[in-house]
Amino acid sequence: MTVKPKRxxxxxxxxxxxxxxxEYPPGMRLDEAELSATFGVSRTPxxxxxxxxxxxxxxxxxxxxxxxxxxxxxKRLCEMFEVMAELxxxxxxxxxxxxxxxxxxxxRTTHIASQAAAEARDLDRYYTINASFHAQIYAASHNAxxxxxxxxxxxxxxxxxxxxxxxxxxxxxxxxEHDAVFRAIEAGDADAAAECxxxxxxxxxxxxxxxxxxxxxxxxxxx
Length: 223
What we know:
This is AsnC family transcriptional regulator. By secondary structure, the protein is mostly helical.
């Protein structure tokens, strides 16, 4: 059975997408009245969505100004991705050892769905399935604290991970990396699963440059 997302969750995703596309650039004030009119919703689910975005650090809630799209500190962002890479590696290592047959079957189904989305170049669908793929690996670690911590940081980095997928050829590379992760977990190879996930999430060199270029482009729109 497909669970229909809450209205506030759908709104959060829609606002995140506009931030990732640069329609809502860093420093922009998110006016509640305008957003209500744009999305055709009441203020209540909208405020819930903005609170979620504030908790993830994507927007800042300021007194008398409301929600502002957060400015990005490159050093801070790099540090967050470094921690995320290690958390994902830990999850992958434990999942390769602890995943149940039912969880592996679910992960396989998600992986196959992501392949279809990648081949169709359906970025939005791929992003949604991609998030599920990672969340399922966190759960398969069977370490509740690690699962919770990884999920929280993943949520904070959500908009930037989405932004990365818009870099040319990144969608295909992302799926290839997922394929290596899945095969390692399926084989029960804990070391390979950890290393594949670490490499998949680490943002450095050209990939960091691409992400920073995307962010600078958004800042120019704001200016």
